[in-house]
Amino acid sequence: MPTSDDLGSDRLIWMYTQMLRIREFEERVKRTFLEHPGAMRGHTHLGDGAEASIVGALATRHETDLVMPSYRCHGYPIVLGSSPCKMMAELYGRSDGLCRGFGGSMHLADPAHHFPGTSGIIGQSIAHATGAALTAQVKNTGQVVYCFFGDGSTKQGAFFESLNMAAVWKLPVVYVLENNEYQAYTHISLEDANHLAGDPLSKKAAAFSIPGITVDGTDPLQVYDAVLAAADRARAGAGPSLIESKFYRLSAHGNAINVPPAPTQFPEHEAVGVYGKKSEYRQAQAADPIPRFRDELMRKGMLADAEAQRIADTVRCEMDDAVQFALASPPPAPEEATNYVYA
Ligand SMILES: Cc1ncc(C[n+]2csc(CCOP(=O)(O)OP(=O)(O)O)c2C)c(N)n1
Ligand SMILES: [Mg+2]
């Protein structure tokens, strides 16, 4: 069976580039909240720290497989090929956005790139993805559904109900449980707020007699190997798997127009003491998966300094262009307000 050892340097550099593209996109979102509060309305949730996990998982997918994360969702469509310009315009609520400015950060959708949509309701991506996997099975499309959700979502009924049915019906779905140590403002192990049973969380798979494994989500190749095995299993008709990918959320929970962006919103702005520990943040920052993977590729002789610099420059330009595109796009016309509303 193929593993990450079979990945050539082109593919590994592609993976590194995607990690950087996610980080740079979100850096610009973060900067908007710091420098132009009010320019981006609605809540946004950043995924810095998750890049290795996202890219490691998505590098295993086949072209038509579906990807269904929760509301912390910017990274996935970037890897799938969605336009960062349209994504940024969507976050700014502009008419050239991916969803014409009607969805915002938490409701990105790009069906053309196999990204059906996301939800702000915790745990719902699990139910949606399970339904999509049932469709794939009934229609015999050969698709595997990649479902991503947070550690906090494993407390929801949707988690148990979905994994139960997926296991019974052997649905083609890979559940990637993103354990970023936080549920909004609460640390996973906060002793005076005991709230989450199970350690490791991947053990919950045993309740459904499906494979469950915990991997280091800061290492894209470890994630790749685990997800590849799970996707192959799903594709072969053997049903779902649960992969717990562990990493650390490097940004605060979220940003919103009514939440002051600094100092309370960003750890690097002296906010760590608010609900995270400075020491734990500094440790995670020192183990940032992006420079670590870059250094690993350099050590292996696959990436030279000049090439790394060229990639960084290209990605920076791409994401600067995305902001310019978004700012140049007009907001939707008021008379369109009830368009695309189905309820
Ligand atoms: C059903 C529901 N309950 C509560 C909330 C409020 N809420 C927003 S984020 C969050 C924590 C989610 O934690 P986790 O699943 O670990 O995801 P993460 O934010 O870490 O990606 C909660 C409780 C919600 N959006 N939906
Ligand atoms: Mg979490």
Q: What's the total helix number?
A: 11
Identify the bound ligands: thiamine diphosphate, magnesium ion
CA radius of gyration is 19 Å
Global morphology: globular
> What is the CATH top level name?
Alpha Beta
Kindly report the average pLDDT value: 91
- Estimated helix fraction: 40-55%
Question: What spatial order of strands do you see in the largest sheet?
Answer: 1-2-3-7-6
* Cα-to-Cα separation, first versus last residue: 47 Å
Which CATH architecture?
A: 3-Layer(aba) Sandwich
**How many E strands?**
7
* Domain module tally: 1
Give me the secondary-structure category: alpha/beta
Q: Note the beta-strand portion.
A: 5-15%
At CATH level 3, the topology is: Rossmann fold
Could you give the order of the helices and strands? HHEHHHEHEEEEHEHHHH
Q: How would a crystallographer describe the biggest sheet?
A: 5 strands, parallel
Provide an overview of this structure.
The chain has helices spanning 9-35, 51-58, 75-80, 84-91, 124-139, 157-169, 220-235, 272-275, 278-286, 289-299, 305-328, and strands spanning 66-68, 145-150, 173-179, 182-183, 186-187, 212-216, 241-246. It contains eleven helices and seven strands. The strands form two sheets. The protein has a five-stranded parallel sheet, with helices on both faces. A two-stranded antiparallel ribbon has the order 4-5. The termini are far apart. The chain is globular and about 50 Å long. By secondary structure, it is of the alpha/beta class. α1 (9-35) packs across α2. It has one domain (8-326): Rossmann fold, CATH 3.40.50.970. It binds thiamine diphosphate and magnesium ion. Thiamine diphosphate is lined by residues 72, 120-122, 150-153, 180, 182-184.
